[in-house]
Amino acid sequence: MSPNWVVKLVAATVCAAFAVPPAPAAAARLTINAAGLKRTALIVERDPLKLTRRPLVIVLHGANSNGARVRRRLGLESIASSAKPIFLYPDAIHGHWPVVAGEEAERDVAMLRDMTARLVRQGLVNSRLIFVVGDSTGGAMAIRAVCSGLGQSIAGLATINATMPADLTATCATVQPVAYIAVDAEARSQNPAASGEVAVTGAKIEAAGLPAAVALFGKSAGCTVEPSPAPMVVVDPRTRDVASIERFLGCKAPVERVRIIGDGKAPSVKFGASNDRASRRVEKINVDAAHLVWAFLKKLGA
Length: 302
Fold this sequence. Notes:
With 302 residues, the chain is α/β, with parallel strands linked by helices. It has one domain: Alpha/Beta hydrolase fold, catalytic domain (Rossmann fold, 3-Layer(aba) Sandwich). It has helices spanning 3-18, 67-74, 76-79, 103-121, 137-147, 168-171, 192-195, 212-220, 267-271, 289-300; strands at residues 27-34, 37-45, 54-60, 86-90, 125-135, 154-160, 179-184, 197-199, 208-211, 232-235, 242-247, 255-261, 282-284. It has an eleven-stranded mixed beta sheet, sandwiched between helices. A two-stranded antiparallel ribbon has the order 8-9. Helix 5 (137-147) links the parallel strand 5 (125-135) and strand 6 (154-160). The chain is globular, with a radius of gyration of 19 Å. The two termini are 18 Å apart. Residues 1-22, 186-208 and 263-285 have low confidence and may be disordered.
């Protein structure tokens, strides 16, 4: 992360803190028939009369939720106030995405594919600028969707507190490298089996003691085993939450891992950063998951 980019992000965060939040854009209801079922989603088109094709950000909610709730909870639209993507918030059947492979998972992947294709056919969406954000079980569904064919058109993937479905560890094969950021707000278990982490072999990411999804997308992007030698550490000035942002090297598409700890401990204590100040950067910026996700997607063109 370049110093100039950090300065811009800090400046934008400070300005946002004192700005009057924009009124939320009006949302419409998108309904399609998929596999004989009526499927729904909220769609937000800011500047709906704009004729150019725009980026699409698909946001998948967690368990016991729906598109409207995750829209309010993450607040991505207010963070992206200067951008004009289309936001799509699909609803899972009965509030739950399928977490294991099978007909239900295939049904929901097909639904996401159909909704996306419809918006592209209507001339609303730039097919090269489609992004998926998944929260909790929605993150697992987002990974499955990318592994099942949406990856051909996905410019970026972001998951928040998500675990990769076990069956995808051996079966996921993306057609092209996919830019990926994994944000975890809870410390992972030291037990690899409990945390979904895998071991490393060879000079590239095949395993690296990393969460399975980070290892998989890092391998697909040709990243080297280790992340950048000096992870960036950021501190939220309001809550004292701290986060370590690890950016992997040599990737054909960017891959990042973020760990947020909300206990206010010193970054050097929590993340083992060197006492040599030249070897790391500590900045006071907003480190909540939604801001970090949007900063990543914005660099990709969202």
